[in-house]
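Researcher: Re-running this chain for the archive, since the previous output was lost when a drive failed. Same request as before.
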Amino acid sequence: MYRFLLTRQWVILTLISLLLIPTMIRLGFWQKHRYEERSARNALVSQALNAKPVPAEQVTTPGHAVTRKERYHTVTATGTFDTADEVVVRRRTNADDEVGYHVLTPFVLADGKVLLVNRGWISSDGPSQTAFPKVPAPPGGRVTIQGRLMPDETTAASGIKELKGLPDRQIMLINSAEQARRLGKQVLGGYIQQTAPAPRGDTPEQISDPGKEDAPLNYAYMIQWWLFAAGVPYGWFVLVRREARTREEAEKARPAAEAEPAAVG
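Model: Regenerated structure tokens:
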């Protein structure tokens, strides 16, 4: 009854089924790892955002590479904004996916060191893409600010290419080492996304809190792949039983069909 399993069609179908099962199991484990990685990142982000604010110089120093645990940690600093050396970061979007600039302003601390401050987003609408845009002024004089600590940007991490020959005071990536060379001063590693005080007139637009990665989606995909893996042998068994039943019914009907002409004659 089951000799049909040795036919070319069924051999191929069986081999495909045998290949699909371990493949789907591996895909389920891959989604499991993605779920665990995203959950761990979400936990780090939540921990950093909810941590007690600390002075920036307790977390970062000149040449320091901001770690994953330090990223998004709220830091404070007291000093003065240096608008004369302010630059804008090209090709940045706001919450509505409008393309514009991020405003990067050096913040000079009491000891002369510099903390790079991303004050937020401004529109790139204007008569020229090469002229320095009109940037709202930060608070004047000595002020205390607060923001989320961020690592230096790289092309590998952001996908943004560093370009040469840009207009004056425009950059593509925020890099503390590059800014230290430009300013000729000691610059703390990384930079901060300013969260306080809020800008006057709501501009520049402050960068919103980082959203959580959708880890539960990977968990759902993990279960889905393993259900698929379990469903393959079940589906193969159903097809085999259906084929066997069809052939068995055909075999039973054949004698009656062969005997019918003799009876008529």
